[in-house]
Amino acid sequence: xxxxxxxxxxxxxxxxxxxxxxxxxxxxxxxxxxxxxxxxxxxxxxxxxxxxxxxxxxxxxxxxxxxxxxxxxxxxxxxxxxxxxxxxxxxxxxxxxxxxxxxxxxxxxxxxxxxxxxxxxxxxxxxxxxxxxxxxxxxxxxxxxxxxxxxxxxxxxxxxxxxxxxxxxxxxxxxxxxxxxxxxxxxxxxxxxxxxxxxxxxxxxxxxxxxxxxxxxxxxxxxxxxxxxxxxxxxxxxxxxxxxxxxxxxxxxxxxxxxxxxxxxxxxxxxxxxxxxxxxxxxxxxxxxxxxxxxxxxxxxxxxxxxxxxxxxxxxxxxxxxxxxxxxxxxxxxxxxxxxxxxxxxxxxxxxxxxxxxxxxxxxxxxxxxxxxxxxxxxxxxxxxxx
Length: 387
Known about the structure:
The protein is of the alpha+beta class.
């Protein structure tokens, strides 16, 4: 199940560290840090590197400095030009089994990149995200997060021409990256906006490029394959947890089964019928590749709440309130919470976003409203003090 919602902007703020040379993150091999690179514990130092003519060289140091200074155009210029460079900044170093220098902070850089693109002030840099996709291969975390945002950017802004204008060889490489992953799924709506030749390339990829060599086929086949879900399949299964909650307001506890964090986005509803539990609905727990993960499912007035949070540092939470209304499970609203900054006077934005979406609607994910963007939060969200 593909979750397509806009994630909030998490921006790194300058801490005035001066002009020094960047030093790598001090951490043990394979250890994953979660602090912002502008915190003193990380020991980041910066120096602007320039050539003989005074033009800033393309380097990870200068990218970090542009991010720190919020120099928008320089940040876009310094951002990686291709997949190899992108992976060497934000990916996992397989040879050393350790993170590359900006791995732990990839979310901040990727969010800022797409925030700038959404301002429509820098259209010439749209092609940079496509260039990064060329020859790309799926990885977890930052790579997957970038993949998710490119697809979201194309779909939400109807930028399908970014694919359609490519030559066939390049488009095949780009489309492969955009849909690569542990469980590739064909997106018919996305394909319908492609030119005939590009649509054919995407269809061919799913016929030959993914499934024939996929070592991790989807363990949850689509409903049209007549799969029957039974409660016993998930009892004492380490990949799932079960909550007893009255989900249809009949006074009897029912069963909600969710995949554990990092185990998928499946959520199953089972109604109590006599002495048995009857499968009723397969839906989502709103976990996202490279984004928020399931935390818990708790009872709520008229239904239940699916609680998610970003696990890799910073405050980013989303609570999805679901109620049983008119014989249907409806996502009534979502409460998003995020920290305003990393400074001492930071506060928490709390954004209550009305949804009123039937979980069974075919266009559920396309209609799902994400957190208001940074420019709208002052108007649409409330503020709370940090603990």
